[in-house]
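step=encode ok
step=design start
structure_in=
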Protein backbone atom coordinates (compact mmCIF):
# COMPACT_ATOMS: atom_id res chain seq x y z
CA UNK A 1 0.00 0.00 0.00
CA UNK A 2 2.45 2.68 -1.09
CA UNK A 3 1.49 6.34 -0.95
CA UNK A 4 2.36 8.35 -4.05
CA UNK A 5 3.15 12.08 -3.81
CA UNK A 6 3.61 14.36 -6.82
CA UNK A 7 5.38 17.70 -6.91
CA UNK A 8 7.19 20.04 -9.25
CA UNK A 9 6.19 22.24 -12.19
CA UNK A 10 3.58 20.11 -13.97
CA UNK A 11 1.69 18.90 -10.86
CA UNK A 12 1.78 22.44 -9.44
CA UNK A 13 0.38 23.84 -12.68
CA UNK A 14 -2.34 21.16 -12.92
CA UNK A 15 -2.89 19.83 -9.39
CA UNK A 16 -6.40 18.59 -10.13
CA UNK A 17 -5.07 16.48 -13.00
CA UNK A 18 -2.21 15.13 -10.87
CA UNK A 19 -4.60 14.29 -8.03
CA UNK A 20 -6.30 11.78 -10.34
CA UNK A 21 -3.11 9.69 -10.31
CA UNK A 22 -1.39 10.51 -7.01
CA UNK A 23 -2.53 10.39 -3.41
CA UNK A 24 -1.22 13.89 -2.68
CA UNK A 25 0.16 16.79 -4.69
CA UNK A 26 2.63 19.30 -3.25
CA UNK A 27 1.76 22.58 -4.98
CA UNK A 28 4.60 25.06 -5.47
CA UNK A 29 7.52 25.13 -3.05
CA UNK A 30 7.99 21.88 -1.17
CA UNK A 31 10.76 22.52 1.36
CA UNK A 32 8.33 23.07 4.25
CA UNK A 33 5.25 21.37 2.80
CA UNK A 34 6.65 17.92 2.08
CA UNK A 35 8.10 17.21 5.57
CA UNK A 36 4.88 18.45 7.17
CA UNK A 37 2.82 16.22 4.88
CA UNK A 38 5.00 13.20 5.64
CA UNK A 39 4.66 13.83 9.39
CA UNK A 40 0.86 14.03 9.08
CA UNK A 41 0.76 10.75 7.15
CA UNK A 42 3.08 9.05 9.62
CA UNK A 43 1.17 10.31 12.67
CA UNK A 44 -2.26 9.64 11.20
CA UNK A 45 -3.31 13.27 11.64
CA UNK A 46 -5.55 15.18 9.24
CA UNK A 47 -3.57 15.99 6.09
CA UNK A 48 -6.15 18.67 5.25
CA UNK A 49 -4.44 20.82 7.90
CA UNK A 50 -1.24 20.89 5.82
CA UNK A 51 -1.17 24.04 3.68
CA UNK A 52 0.10 23.79 0.12
CA UNK A 53 -1.21 20.37 -0.86
CA UNK A 54 -4.00 19.01 -3.07
CA UNK A 55 -5.75 15.64 -3.07
CA UNK A 56 -8.91 13.88 -4.15
CA UNK A 57 -11.26 12.53 -1.50
CA UNK A 58 -14.74 11.02 -1.94
CA UNK A 59 -14.73 12.05 -5.57
CA UNK A 60 -13.99 15.70 -4.81
CA UNK A 61 -10.83 17.75 -5.37
CA UNK A 62 -9.39 19.54 -2.34
CA UNK A 63 -6.69 22.23 -2.21
CA UNK A 64 -5.59 23.40 1.22
CA UNK A 65 -4.44 26.81 -0.03
CA UNK A 66 -1.06 28.49 -0.47
CA UNK A 67 1.45 28.78 2.33
CA UNK A 68 4.02 31.44 3.14
CA UNK A 69 7.02 31.79 0.86
CA UNK A 70 10.13 29.84 1.78
CA UNK A 71 13.10 31.66 3.32
CA UNK A 72 15.91 30.32 1.13
CA UNK A 73 18.54 30.79 3.83
CA UNK A 74 16.74 28.18 5.98
CA UNK A 75 17.16 25.44 3.37
CA UNK A 76 20.33 24.22 1.63
CA UNK A 77 20.42 24.38 -2.18
CA UNK A 78 21.50 20.72 -2.20
CA UNK A 79 22.62 18.00 0.16
CA UNK A 80 26.14 16.65 -0.49
CA UNK A 81 27.23 14.40 -2.10
CA UNK A 82 24.42 15.30 -4.54
CA UNK A 83 25.64 18.63 -5.90
CA UNK A 84 23.85 20.95 -8.29
CA UNK A 85 24.13 24.63 -9.21
CA UNK A 86 23.57 26.94 -6.25
CA UNK A 87 20.14 28.58 -6.35
CA UNK A 88 20.65 32.26 -5.49
CA UNK A 89 17.21 33.71 -6.33
CA UNK A 90 13.62 32.51 -6.51
CA UNK A 91 10.53 34.30 -7.87
CA UNK A 92 10.11 36.91 -10.60
CA UNK A 93 8.06 40.14 -10.79
CA UNK A 94 7.52 40.12 -14.55
CA UNK A 95 4.92 37.44 -15.18
CA UNK A 96 5.82 36.59 -18.80
CA UNK A 97 2.83 34.71 -20.19
CA UNK A 98 4.77 31.57 -21.17
CA UNK A 99 6.77 31.19 -17.93
CA UNK A 100 5.95 29.07 -14.88
CA UNK A 101 8.32 30.81 -12.47
CA UNK A 102 5.83 33.33 -10.98
CA UNK A 103 3.07 30.73 -10.61
CA UNK A 104 5.46 28.37 -8.83
CA UNK A 105 7.48 30.80 -6.73
CA UNK A 106 5.58 34.07 -6.68
CA UNK A 107 6.15 37.53 -8.12
CA UNK A 108 8.50 38.70 -5.36
CA UNK A 109 12.20 38.05 -5.83
CA UNK A 110 13.77 36.29 -2.85
CA UNK A 111 17.54 36.08 -2.69
CA UNK A 112 19.71 33.67 -0.77
CA UNK A 113 22.11 35.80 1.27
CA UNK A 114 25.75 36.09 0.25
CA UNK A 115 26.73 34.45 3.55
CA UNK A 116 24.44 31.47 2.91
CA UNK A 117 25.65 31.12 -0.69
CA UNK A 118 29.27 31.13 0.43
CA UNK A 119 28.61 28.22 2.82
CA UNK A 120 28.30 26.04 -0.30
CA UNK A 121 31.04 27.77 -2.25
CA UNK A 122 33.69 25.31 -1.09
CA UNK A 123 32.04 22.29 -2.71
CA UNK A 124 33.00 23.52 -6.19
CA UNK A 125 35.92 24.84 -8.14
CA UNK A 126 33.54 25.96 -10.90
CA UNK A 127 30.55 27.89 -9.51
CA UNK A 128 27.30 27.80 -11.47
CA UNK A 129 24.28 29.61 -10.10
CA UNK A 130 20.50 29.33 -10.58
CA UNK A 131 18.42 32.49 -11.00
CA UNK A 132 15.55 33.68 -13.20
CA UNK A 133 17.67 36.81 -13.84
CA UNK A 134 21.20 36.73 -12.47
CA UNK A 135 21.82 40.47 -12.92
CA UNK A 136 18.81 41.14 -10.66
CA UNK A 137 20.49 39.56 -7.63
CA UNK A 138 19.81 41.59 -4.50
CA UNK A 139 17.16 43.74 -6.21
CA UNK A 140 13.38 43.82 -6.61
CA UNK A 141 13.79 42.38 -10.10
CA UNK A 142 12.69 45.61 -11.77
CA UNK A 143 15.72 47.81 -11.07
CA UNK A 144 19.22 46.31 -10.79
CA UNK A 145 21.31 46.53 -7.63
CA UNK A 146 24.89 46.36 -8.96
CA UNK A 147 26.37 46.81 -5.49
CA UNK A 148 24.66 43.59 -4.35
CA UNK A 149 25.92 41.75 -7.44
CA UNK A 150 29.46 42.97 -6.78
CA UNK A 151 29.30 41.87 -3.14
CA UNK A 152 28.24 38.38 -4.24
CA UNK A 153 30.87 38.02 -6.97
CA UNK A 154 33.68 39.35 -4.76
CA UNK A 155 32.76 36.83 -2.07
CA UNK A 156 32.92 33.74 -4.28
CA UNK A 157 36.11 31.83 -5.04
CA UNK A 158 37.29 29.72 -7.97
CA UNK A 159 35.78 30.00 -11.43
CA UNK A 160 32.47 31.86 -11.22
CA UNK A 161 29.99 31.54 -14.09
CA UNK A 162 27.43 34.31 -13.83
CA UNK A 163 24.88 35.34 -16.43
CA UNK A 164 25.15 32.00 -18.24
CA UNK A 165 22.85 28.98 -18.14
CA UNK A 166 21.22 28.33 -15.69
CA UNK A 167 21.34 32.00 -14.67
CA UNK A 168 20.43 33.90 -17.82
CA UNK A 169 19.69 37.62 -17.74
CA UNK A 170 17.04 40.04 -18.99
CA UNK A 171 18.32 42.39 -21.72
CA UNK A 172 17.44 45.65 -19.96
CA UNK A 173 19.68 44.60 -17.03
CA UNK A 174 22.72 44.46 -19.31
CA UNK A 175 24.70 47.65 -18.73
CA UNK A 176 28.38 48.57 -19.16
CA UNK A 177 28.72 48.60 -15.36
CA UNK A 178 27.22 45.13 -15.01
CA UNK A 179 29.45 43.81 -17.78
CA UNK A 180 32.50 45.26 -16.02
CA UNK A 181 31.59 43.19 -12.95
CA UNK A 182 31.38 40.05 -15.09
CA UNK A 183 34.72 40.64 -16.81
CA UNK A 184 36.38 41.49 -13.47
CA UNK A 185 35.15 38.61 -11.32
CA UNK A 186 33.84 35.84 -13.60
CA UNK A 187 35.28 33.10 -15.79
CA UNK A 188 32.54 32.93 -18.43
CA UNK A 189 33.22 34.20 -21.92
CA UNK A 190 29.53 34.29 -22.84
CA UNK A 191 26.44 35.99 -21.43
CA UNK A 192 23.05 34.36 -22.07
CA UNK A 193 20.10 36.68 -22.69
CA UNK A 194 16.38 36.06 -22.94
CA UNK A 195 15.20 37.88 -26.06
CA UNK A 196 12.23 35.62 -26.95
CA UNK A 197 10.97 37.64 -29.94
CA UNK A 198 12.10 40.35 -32.33
CA UNK A 199 8.52 41.63 -32.66
CA UNK A 200 7.45 44.38 -30.29
CA UNK A 201 3.83 43.34 -30.83
CA UNK A 202 4.57 39.80 -29.62
CA UNK A 203 6.71 41.05 -26.73
CA UNK A 204 3.81 43.18 -25.52
CA UNK A 205 1.36 40.28 -25.93
CA UNK A 206 3.49 37.96 -23.79
CA UNK A 207 4.04 40.74 -21.19
CA UNK A 208 7.78 40.53 -21.60
CA UNK A 209 8.45 44.11 -20.47
CA UNK A 210 11.21 45.07 -22.91
CA UNK A 211 11.51 45.91 -26.61
CA UNK A 212 13.23 44.17 -29.51
CA UNK A 213 15.65 47.10 -29.76
CA UNK A 214 16.73 46.50 -26.16
CA UNK A 215 17.62 42.91 -27.07
CA UNK A 216 19.92 44.05 -29.88
CA UNK A 217 21.40 46.80 -27.67
CA UNK A 218 22.10 44.31 -24.87
CA UNK A 219 23.85 41.95 -27.28
CA UNK A 220 26.01 44.85 -28.49
CA UNK A 221 26.84 45.79 -24.88
CA UNK A 222 27.99 42.23 -24.17
CA UNK A 223 30.09 42.21 -27.33
CA UNK A 224 31.65 45.58 -26.46
CA UNK A 225 32.80 44.05 -23.17
CA UNK A 226 34.71 41.38 -25.09
CA UNK A 227 32.21 38.59 -24.41
CA UNK A 228 29.90 36.65 -26.70
CA UNK A 229 26.14 37.27 -26.39
CA UNK A 230 23.98 34.14 -26.62
CA UNK A 231 20.32 35.08 -27.12
CA UNK A 232 17.22 32.89 -26.69
CA UNK A 233 14.29 33.23 -29.08
CA UNK A 234 10.97 31.38 -29.05
CA UNK A 235 9.13 30.61 -32.29
CA UNK A 236 5.46 29.65 -32.46
CA UNK A 237 4.18 31.84 -29.63
CA UNK A 238 0.37 32.09 -29.62
CA UNK A 239 -0.85 34.80 -31.97
CA UNK A 240 2.48 35.06 -33.78
CA UNK A 241 2.14 36.13 -37.41
CA UNK A 242 4.41 35.76 -40.40
CA UNK A 243 5.52 39.39 -40.07
CA UNK A 244 6.41 38.77 -36.43
CA UNK A 245 8.61 35.85 -37.42
CA UNK A 246 10.23 38.05 -40.09
CA UNK A 247 10.95 40.68 -37.43
CA UNK A 248 12.50 38.02 -35.19
CA UNK A 249 14.69 36.78 -38.04
CA UNK A 250 15.82 40.35 -38.67
CA UNK A 251 16.72 40.69 -34.98
CA UNK A 252 18.62 37.40 -35.13
CA UNK A 253 20.55 38.49 -38.22
CA UNK A 254 21.60 41.73 -36.51
CA UNK A 255 22.87 39.81 -33.46
CA UNK A 256 24.78 37.29 -35.59
CA UNK A 257 26.36 40.07 -37.65
CA UNK A 258 27.61 41.48 -34.36
CA UNK A 259 29.29 38.19 -33.43
CA UNK A 260 26.51 36.81 -31.25
CA UNK A 261 24.98 33.34 -31.07
CA UNK A 262 21.34 32.27 -31.08
CA UNK A 263 19.46 29.55 -29.22
CA UNK A 264 16.15 29.00 -31.02
CA UNK A 265 13.27 27.25 -29.25
CA UNK A 266 9.83 26.15 -30.37
CA UNK A 267 7.04 27.27 -28.06
CA UNK A 268 5.70 24.65 -25.68
CA UNK A 269 2.70 25.56 -23.50
CA UNK A 270 3.35 24.93 -19.81
CA UNK A 271 0.71 24.12 -17.17
CA UNK A 272 -0.35 27.03 -14.99
CA UNK A 273 0.64 29.75 -17.46
CA UNK A 274 -1.66 32.06 -19.46
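sequence_out=
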Amino acid sequence: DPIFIAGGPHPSGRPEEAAEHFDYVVVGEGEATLPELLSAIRDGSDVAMVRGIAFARDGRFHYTGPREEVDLDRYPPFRPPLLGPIEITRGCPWGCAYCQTPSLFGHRMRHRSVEAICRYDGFYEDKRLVSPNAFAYGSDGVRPAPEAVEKLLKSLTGNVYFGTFPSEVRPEFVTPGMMELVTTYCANREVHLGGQSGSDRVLRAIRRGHTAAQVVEAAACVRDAGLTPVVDFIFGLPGEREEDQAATLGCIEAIIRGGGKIRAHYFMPLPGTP
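step=design ok
step=annotate ok -> The first helix runs from residue 9 to 13.
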